[in-house]
Amino acid sequence: VARVAVDLLGGDGAPAAVVDGVLLALAADPDLTVALVGPSDVAGAELAARGAPERARLHLVQASEVVGMDEDPARAVRAKRDATVRVAAALVRDGVADATVSVGSTGAALAAAVFTLGRLPGVTRPGLAVVVPAARGPLVLLDAGATVECGHDLLVQFALAGSAYAQVRLGVDRPRVGLLSIGAEAGKGDALRKAAHALLADLPIRFVGNVEAHAVPLGGHADVVVTDGFTGNVLLKGLEGTVAAVAEAAAHEGQELPALEAFAHRWDADGQGGGVLLGVDGVAVVGHGSSSPRGVASCVAAAAQAHREQLVPRVRSAMSDLVARRRAKAGMAWA
Amino acid sequence: VARVAVDLLGGDGAPAAVVDGVLLALAADPDLTVALVGPSDVAGAELAARGAPERARLHLVQASEVVGMDEDPARAVRAKRDATVRVAAALVRDGVADATVSVGSTGAALAAAVFTLGRLPGVTRPGLAVVVPAARGPLVLLDAGATVECGHDLLVQFALAGSAYAQVRLGVDRPRVGLLSIGAEAGKGDALRKAAHALLADLPIRFVGNVEAHAVPLGGHADVVVTDGFTGNVLLKGLEGTVAAVAEAAAHEGQELPALEAFAHRWDADGQGGGVLLGVDGVAVVGHGSSSPRGVASCVAAAAQAHREQLVPRVRSAMSDLVARRRAKAGMAWA
User: Fold this and answer.
1) Residue A326 · residue A124 · CB < 8 Å
2) Distance (Å, whole) CA A73 – CA A298
3) Rounded average pLDDT over B296-309
């Protein structure tokens, strides 16, 4: 069983796309329960418009405020006690739900998760992990944009958490973890990458060294690719834009490209199941603001899977090594 | 007339691919003269193997050392007085050639250019500018990897130099200059981007604000996209890898994709004419190490064009505004 709290008001297509997506997810998964978090009258009207579907596994949880894309997310989440993302996170904190999903502002979902669920021991800032459908098999990329200013300590956290996530999401026993840089050799990259390389090599993960950016769309070099949120976001949008550019060029020449369509389909927001915030004490999934009902459903399914496969306990365990090292370093080792 | 000094020993296919590329370039441009810089016996043997072609516009300049990909470029260039890249740059410094081309180590070409040609007034570090064949028309991206640690002052230099280069290379009168960031709004991005945004808005260029990464492969938003060398290199390799990934997926399904082939062809190293180092006192073009003869020829053609269209005087002029501001700020204004 998985109980997922979904932000009714997040995303460009809200509330209709969210409701349609939730109904799709419920139909696909008989062990799923959803709490729709938003104004109950809005939810009720949407359901009535769909012929008032059977609601055995669908609950309405009241919340009235929304965090806009133009607001400072941390400040808005702090100020708005009745914001949908905050109420959804509180359901997880209180054990009423197992996971949250929002296709609204990533910053708001992040702020709500940190503020309400808290961070796992050893975590400074959460990372946003996405699954890239690379040509030679999927891989996990993080941070995809949650934290734009990253130090090497944060890259270490992302490597540990990302490795745990790849076990859950990709089903890989010992995921290969690579550091995104501008050359395969250990010495290549900026000061941040050079500092991180030595630290990553010392972790209890399968570190495969630097990987270059072409390895992200192509795949085959690493199961987890670690980078700062600025670079990760730029790379991800660059990949999405390139797929769109190829499709545009093909359409321009009047060519039908079934393979490209299938490829682009795998790449689009709807197929990816959103991003997961790693390092908070609960499962929190955020999707593209442009998510269609199918995109919302894939986020709900990803959230349910993360809960069922013990994502948070796994990340907590992955972090414990880091916590132990810090304690030892600070002279507080219990041993 | 354009006189281009070409590094005989740079690149994976050297010396054969370099010689073939030079012969292609000479055949395509009757006003071109090339100096092949490398061991004269190697050059002589390559030419003899091709039936000793007529050499009215082809000269052999002796240089015996090469900077390897595994060496520290700055140190190696300083130590090796007879390195091909250093001898080639000296030809430009001494007025014997108008431009240099190397498809070897970018770091070595950069070090040789800075060491031998020097920087233009106002320039702290040169930027590597490449032309991206975006779907809606080409654009200039810099820095593509010359300088991985960039402050906001360097992004300002890249914007001025890149705007001058786009005039020459793209034939755009008042190029639109965008700052690569992770959101279109002025406040989006890391501290570096936020600091740079205000400075760019104050320059005598057509600054269009932040652009997101999908605008680079798609085009249409800016003629020049400015970023640090780490992010630029990651984005460029990500785009190249995505094109390769789409092609791989199509081939896997046994589909022929003429439009994709044409697109990939535009994207591959050979079509792009290499990158130009902006901010040094001379035209210096560097190409992919994997360049084919056609790739070498496109670099030589790009170098000749940059010389003919006065790239260096234009960049010098673009920098003068910056120099004047610095003088004024330092209380040394002559006015």
Assistant:
1) no
2) 24
3) 95
- Nearest Cβ partner for A235 among B136, B193, B235: B235
Q: Which residue has the tokens 């309400």?
A: A116
The string over B209-231, giving b where at least 16 C-beta atoms fall within 10 Å of a residue's C-beta and e elsewhere, is bbbbbbbbbbbebbbbbbbbbbb
CA-to-CA dists, residue A292 to A24, A39, B142, angstroms: 11, 21, 35
More confident residue, B273 or A10: A10
Identity of the residue numbered A54: E
**Integer angstrom CA distances of residue B128 from B110, B142, B272:** 9, 6, 13
- What percent of chain B is modeled with pLDDT above 70? 92
Q: Which residues of A touch B230 (CB under 8 A)?
A: 182, 189-190, 193, 231
The string of pLDDT tens digits covering residues A207-244 is: 999 999 999 999 999 999 999 999 999 999 999 999 88
- Does B190 sit within 8 Å of A230, measured CB to CB? yes
Buried (b) or exposed (e) across A267-295, using 16+ Cβ within 10 A? bbbbebbbbbbbbbbbbbbbbbbebbbbb
Q: What is the pTM of this model?
A: 0.92
Contact B241 A213 (CB under 8 A): yes
Q: How confident is the model over B225-254, as pLDDT tens digits?
A: 999 999 999 999 999 999 888 887 777 776
Per-residue pLDDT tens digits for A48-95: 999 887 778 999 999 999 998 788 899 999 999 999 999 999 999 999
Distance from CA of B121 to the nearest CA of A (A): 26
Chain B positions in Cβ-Cβ contact with residue A147 (cut-off 8 Å): none
To the nearest whole Å, the CA of A118 is away from the closest chain B CA by 24
The distance of A252 to chain B (nearest Cα, Å) reads 9
**Residues A221 and A134 sit within 8 Å (Cβ to Cβ):** no
Best B230, B252, B290 member to test A by mutation, with max A CBs in 10 Å, is B230
Of A141, A81, A71, residue with least CA distance to A108: A71
One-letter identity of residue A277: L
Q: Are A233 and B255 a contacting pair at CB < 8 A?
A: no
Residues A28 and A49: their CA atoms lie apart, in Å, by 21
A250 interaction partners in chain B (CB closer than 8 Å)? 257, 259-260, 263
Interchain proximity B134–A236, CB inside 8 Å: no
Q: How far apart are the first and last CA of chain A?
A: 39
Sequence-ordered list of residues with C-beta below 8 angstroms from that of B248, at least 6 positions apart, any chain: A135, A136, A218
Determine whether the interchain pair A263/B249 forms a contact, defined as Cβ–Cβ distance below 8 Å: yes
Amino acid at B323: V
Structure tokens belonging to residue B141: 């991206």
- Give the total residue count for chain B: 335
Strand ranges for B104-227 from DSSP E? 127-132, 139-142, 176-180, 206-211, 224-226
Nearest residue to A129 via CA among A138, A140, A121: A140
